[in-house]
Amino acid sequence: MLNDAIAFLRAQQDTESGGWAVRPDGVTFPAITALVVDGMLQHPAIDAADPDVARGIEYLLSHRQPDGGIYDRVLPSYNTAIALSALARAGVNPADAAIPDAQRFLIGLQWSEDSLSDEISERLGVGRVDPEHPFYGGVGYGSHGRPDLSNTSFMIQALHDSGYDPDSPPFQRALVFLQRVQMDERVNDMPYAAGATDGGFIYATGPEADQLGVGQSQAGTIEETLDDGTVVSRLRSYGSMTYTGFKTYVYADLPRDDPRVTAARGWIARHYTLDENPGLGEQGYYYYLVAFARALDAWGEPSIDIETGTGGGDSSEARTRRWADDLVTRLAGLQQEDGSFRVLNDRWLESDPVLITAYGVIALQAALDND
């Protein structure tokens, strides 16, 4: 499966530039090339000397900006973070030479006391704030004027992949933001988390720059009946963000008995599935598979105890799943004859077979690590 998917991706490489999903007449997302390169480099028989990988690395480096970022005009944090992960995995010059500048650039995009200069901040959509601010510790696309969990996790993934210390300020600041998008009042002091105890994650602390502390979930809201019969509406935790948040806690070296970790782990036990992205169905499904695979690979256990009955099972008894086997079985059912994976939904660019196949390759690599 993995070799067939990589063969498909090789055939999609742009012959002129060496990148993937290249748009000659529009803005290009180097992140897609970086996902392909990162996935290929995780294959035991492929290294940075591979001709297709080498051209992909050159393409990424061609998008280095004077500010240290790796992007093409838009989405600076998203593109730089994913490119940094790929360049760090390559482990060769001149890729190594680009790493320190990319790290500094990403850290400067984090909402904190140490954000980039006012001029750059205004251009890239980030502000200087103190720890009490709902945006503190987060990173965003730059287009909404507020941070989100997805971009924050890509930054932490990149810093993790490039050897950054988990005790460093960027990791510790990110933990503040993560708590504020975890739907559990025991760790989250935001008003929208009052009464919540599910432990899952939402997307952001607000949908726009001028909407502070109201929260945002791409899965909308869910109604809950309290013990006294009162019905309340809460922001709904969902799969891709919960595995993303859980993985980030692991990368930050939180103890396994930390309340934030155990709450997220409890949500995963209750909602374990590969049939859908819990809370979003087929939307963002391949992104979900990558988040699922990376999180459980980082956790480091080949089996996971789950609760059935609340997540679609037949009873409330706990049972054990070998998550890598489940993942491979699911991807096998989605792979097509040409090695690509079948499009399920077009939201978040997942109508692009290159993007979702790159996601599939990365997820499969994590599964193989736990075989």
Describe this structure in words.
- The chain is mainly alpha-helical and 371 residues long.
- The chain has a domain at 284-371.
- It is 44% helix and 8% strand.
- The chain has 13 helices and 6 strands.
- It has helices spanning 2-11, 30-41, 51-61, 76-90, 95-108, 118-124, 149-161, 169-180, 239-251, 259-271, 285-299, 323-332, 353-369, and strands at 182-184, 197-201, 221-225, 231-235, 303-307, 318-322.
- The strands form 3 sheets. It has a two-stranded antiparallel sheet with strand order 1-2.
- β3 (221-225) and β4 (231-235) form a beta hairpin.
- α4 packs parallel to α7 and α12 packs antiparallel against α13 (353-369).
- The longest helix has 17 residues, at 353-369.
- The chain is globular, with a radius of gyration of 20 Å.
- The chain starts with a helix and ends with a helix.
Give the class from helix and strand content and strand pairing: mainly alpha
Strands, total number: 6
User: Spans of 5+ residues with little confidence (pLDDT < 50)?
Assistant: 310-316
Distance between the termini: 14 Å
Bin the strand percentage. 5-15%
How would a textbook summarize the main sheet? 2 strands, antiparallel
CA radius of gyration is 20 Å
Give the strand order of the largest sheet, numbering strands 1, 2, ... along the chain. Answer: 1-2
Order of helices and strands: HHHHHHHHEEEEHHHEEHH
